[in-house]
Here is the input.
Amino acid sequence: MTTHKGGCHCGRVRFEVDAPAVIAATECNCSICQMSGFLHLIVSSRDFRLLAGEDDLETYTFNTGVAKHRFCRHCGIKSFYIPRSHPDGVSVNIKCLEPSTIERVDVTTFDGRHWEENVAKLSRISD
Here is the structure.
């Protein structure tokens, strides 16, 4: 495991996440992921640490309200959120990680436009 550092565009929100140097990422085509260009790294909440910016975060929810889309109220970047598929985990936007600790990113696609039919295909978080 590697400790990756990341954050939002303006730097107010900063975090660390423990994940492999070779990252298995998921690209989703649901409406919000498609529009925001989010590239998912889903981890256990214990592998994610918010270092700064809790007071700078806003939360957006829609549909079922389970997903908690957290974004910086200053620059608007969503660098991580609580996903509907893994409400006990965190989905980190790989595009918001510092590249120095990333060896490679392997991307698979997920058909989020048909979420209900495909959610079982997502990997479970290992404990």
